[in-house]
């Protein structure tokens, strides 16, 4: 079965590391946890839709999310061609000579033929339901879970149910449940609301990282890339970054906090609502103390959040 709730499931090759294949070698503004870029020279380019599952990988799985929207544009792409067969399946070789090889005709050469091509560009947005799963599945396993395991394209169709089963066997609980909810909402015609750009948000996050390090206030140490600067108050209402007004939270935890599904009482103890407590990842947080030392203003903001969501 290849179809996920609301759409298809895709395995997408990350371009953040040393991307040896020269086709599309121009730099992309990619962030695995929030956006992925491609163009109309990529196989399956027009088949990817909002509501589809996207799993980002490099040598191993990085994470999974649901595509909320796709932005299109126009651009010019630099393409490297094989001088023998004029195809673009060219790779670089760091420790071999000649430096380049064509994976189609197997020709080897020192310099490819460089051309420019006008392309339609695409960029997904998928930050809302991002599930970080770095290293959970290795590349060989991921390829075996594709509809066509030997395919070499940037986008490859996943056998969704098999992929999901492999993730659940590797990680306790049901880490992909949030994808079901997001897919169902998109399939039902719900649109992700645009978020007003927060001036100074990057500096606000950098300040929190300098203070707390790579640590989620609710779950403890984790990769910096999955941490977000969480306002303990409504930024939309206040309109500025208040001193002692934030904490670093993992993306999924941040969303649950914003929706009142997680809250912190006046003792600094985490409360998880019953329906979310059924998921082990979050149920384990219930009754635990927050993982950072709270300052007076942070306690005040958390108290207001508590009263907003837990008042009887």
Number of helices: 9
Mean pLDDT: 83
Main pleated sheet: 6 strands, mixed
Distance between the termini: 46 Å
Beta fraction:
25-35%
Unreliable stretches covering 5 or more consecutive residues:
190-200, 235-241
Helix content class: 10-25%
Count of DSSP E strands? 18
Q: Per the principal axes of the C-alpha atoms, what is the gross shape?
A: elongated
Order of helices and strands: EEEEEEEEEEEHEHHHEEEHEHEEHHH
Structural class: alpha+beta
Radius of gyration: 22 Å
Tell me what you see in this structure.
There is one protein chain. It is built from nine helices and 18 strands. The chain is α+β, with helices and mostly antiparallel strands and about 300 residues long. Strands 1, 2, 4, 5, 11 and 12 form a six-stranded mixed β-sheet that branches. A three-stranded antiparallel β-sheet has the order 3-10-6, with no helix packed on it. The protein has a three-stranded antiparallel β-sheet with strand order 7-8-9, with no helix packed on it. Strand 7 and strand 8 form a beta hairpin. The longest helix has 15 residues. The protein is elongated and about 70 Å long.
Q: What's this entry about, in short?
A:
This protein has 312 residues and is α+β, with helices and mostly antiparallel strands.
Question: Which short descriptors sum up this protein?
Answer:
single chain, 312 residues, alpha+beta, 3-stranded antiparallel β-sheet, 27% strand, elongated
Give the SSE layout:
Elements: E1 3-4, E2 7-13, E3 35-39, E4 53-57, E5 61-66, E6 69-81, E7 90-92, E8 100-102, E9 108-109, E10 113-125, E11 131-132, H1 139-144, E12 155-157, H2 160-170, H3 177-187, H4 201-212, E13 215-216, E14 220-221, E15 227-231, H5 235-238, E16 246-250, H6 251-258, E17 262-264, E18 270-272, H7 274-277, H8 280-283, H9 296-310
């Amino acid at each position: 079965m290849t179809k996920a709730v609301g759409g298809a499931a895709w395995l997408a090759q990350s371009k953040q590391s040393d991307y040896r294949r020269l086709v599309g070698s121009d730099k992309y503004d990619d962030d695995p946890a929030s956006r992925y870029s491609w163009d109309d020279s990529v196989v399956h380019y027009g088949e990817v839709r909002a509501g589809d599952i996207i799993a980002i990988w490099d040598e191993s799985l990085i994470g999974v999310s649901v595509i909320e929207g796709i932005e299109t544009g126009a651009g010019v792409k630099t393409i490297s061609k094989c001088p023998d067969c004029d195809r673009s399946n060219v790779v670089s070789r760091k420790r071999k000579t000649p430096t380049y090889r064509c994976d189609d005709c197997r020709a080897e050469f020192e310099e490819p033929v460089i051309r420019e091509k006008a392309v339609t560009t695409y960029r997904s947005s998928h930050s809302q339901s991002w599930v970080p799963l770095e290293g959970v599945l290795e590349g060989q396993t991921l390829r075996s879970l594709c509809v066509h395991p030997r395919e070499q394209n940037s986008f490859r169709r996943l056998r969704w149910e098999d992929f999901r089963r492999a993730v659940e066997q590797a990680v306790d609980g049901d880490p992909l449940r949030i994808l079901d909810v997001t897919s169902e909402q998109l399939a039902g015609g719900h649109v992700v609301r645009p978020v007003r750009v927060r001036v100074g948000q990057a500096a606000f996050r950098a300040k929190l990282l300098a203070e707390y390090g790579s640590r989620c206030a609710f779950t403890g140490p984790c990769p910096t890339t999955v941490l977000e600067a969480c306002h303990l108050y409504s930024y939309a209402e206040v309109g500025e970054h208040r001193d002692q007004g934030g904490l670093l939270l993992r993306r999924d935890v941040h969303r649950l906090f914003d929706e009142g599904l997680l809250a912190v009482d006046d003792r600094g103890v985490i409360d998880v609502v019953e329906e979310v407590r059924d998921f082990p990842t979050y149920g384990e947080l219930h009754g635990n103390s927050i993982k950072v030392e709270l300052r007076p203003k942070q306690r005040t903001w958390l108290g207001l959040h508590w009263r907003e969501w837990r008042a009887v």
